[in-house]
Specification:
CATH superfamily of the largest domain: Nitrogenase molybdenum iron protein domain
CATH architecture of the largest domain: 3-Layer(aba) Sandwich
CATH class of the largest domain: Alpha Beta
Distance between the termini: 98 Å
Structural class: alpha/beta
Number of domains: 3
Order of helices and strands: HEEEHEHEHEHHEHEHEHHHEHH
Length: 330
């Protein structure tokens, strides 16, 4: 009886060995043709579980069940959110991304497709990439994509730091990069804590004006970016301009309002879009009397960093900390 069992085991082992070699050759070929795929783990097969000999009982066969393998995660991701794109690459999901919207300029290796828009998304254009995951800034086309069998993750604008960390974690789960997401969140928490420990917040609250464009649109403390300013002890001159919330946190100020408010700091992000510079802003009629102009605290900020809630948020906080240090003591 024992001899028969041994022959059965050898026969099955031979079949499995051949099948395994065949599978390994296929995987090796895939790995050699692409540098952008995520690491490939050994796949489970539907082959019958191997039967091994149990020496304790000549008439008993033991079946060994195959262990469950770690999922690979989506391998064809399309991102229509610049913030999500930065997060994806920061957690290690970059090789899984096949296309990003026309505003996802960072990081440089992001596969920007000029015809893909997050503001006016086109389902047909997205479907051409045969995605298995699409990341959206809102739910506008979510149902249409899902009707095509595409997995969709919606990551809208957040209102606080906890929201940032939650979205990074969600992307980690959705892309099978849980460890990468955890490392990123831990790093951001640590760096932000270090900045806050070392920043010198003046006894007198410093006021600021955040200029979105040359028509003087701004942000209030009700927005995410406004809350980041609050973290470093700055007081927003735009808050009274949207006290009722009718501007949804983005009021348009007037020249007179800015002059009357006389901010200690002016941060502008309209250098690229509107050609503004420190000199141009300083030379606006009547602005030469502003404290920010007289003290040299009119500061240009990177529009992308200042408008996104991704990994580079740490850089934004560093910039604000440095700016606060420039204001002369009174």
């Amino acid at each position: 009886m024992k001899q028969i069992i041994r022959l059965v085991v050898l026969a099955i082992a031979s079949i499995l060995l051949f099948s395994s070699c065949s599978d390994q050759e296929t995987v090796t070929g895939d790995e050699s043709t692409s540098d952008t795929q995520a690491p490939i783990t050994e796949e489970t097969t539907d082959t019958q579980a191997p039967i091994i000999e149990d020496d304790t009982d000549d008439d008993k066969l033991v079946t060994v069940e195959p262990t469950e393998k770690e999922p690979l995660g989506p391998q064809s991701i399309v991102s229509l959110s610049p913030t999500a794109t930065e997060m994806l690459f920061a957690i290690g999901a970059g090789p899984q991304v096949v296309a990003v919207d026309n505003y996802s300029y960072y990081p440089e290796e992001a596969p920007v497709v000029e015809d893909l828009s997050g503001y006016s998304p086109n389902v047909e254009a997205i479907a051409e990439f045969e995605p298995d995951l699409v990341v959206l800034p809102d739910a506008g086309i979510k149902e249409e994509l899902e009707s095509l069998g595409v997995e969709v993750l919606v990551l809208p604008a957040v209102s606080n730091l906890d929201g940032v960390y939650e979205q990074i974690a969600d992307l980690g789960v959705a892309t099978a990069n849980i460890d990468g997401a955890a490392v990123l969140v831990a790093s951001m928490r640590s760096e932000i804590a270090s900045i806050m420990e070392n920043i010198v917040i003046p006894e007198r609250p410093l006021t600021f004006f955040h200029e979105l464009d040359d028509t003087l649109y701004s942000v209030t403390s009700g927005t995410f970016i406004g809350q980041i300013y609050e973290m470093v002890g700055l007081s927003n001159i735009a808050d009274p301009a949207d006290a009722d919330g009718s501007a949804y946190g983005y009021p348009q100020l007037t020249q007179e309002f800015v002059l009357e408010s006389d901010p200690d700091l002016i941060f502008f992000v309209d250098g690229n879009c509107c050609g503004q510079t420190v000199e141009i802003i300083s030379e606006r009629p009547g602005w030469d009397v502003l404290k920010a102009v007289r003290n040299g605290t009119v500061i240009e900020m990177d529009a992308d960093i200042a408008s996104r809630w991704g990994p580079r948020l740490v850089q934004f906080l560093h910039s604000l900390s440095d700016a606060v240090a420039l204001v002369p003591a009174e």
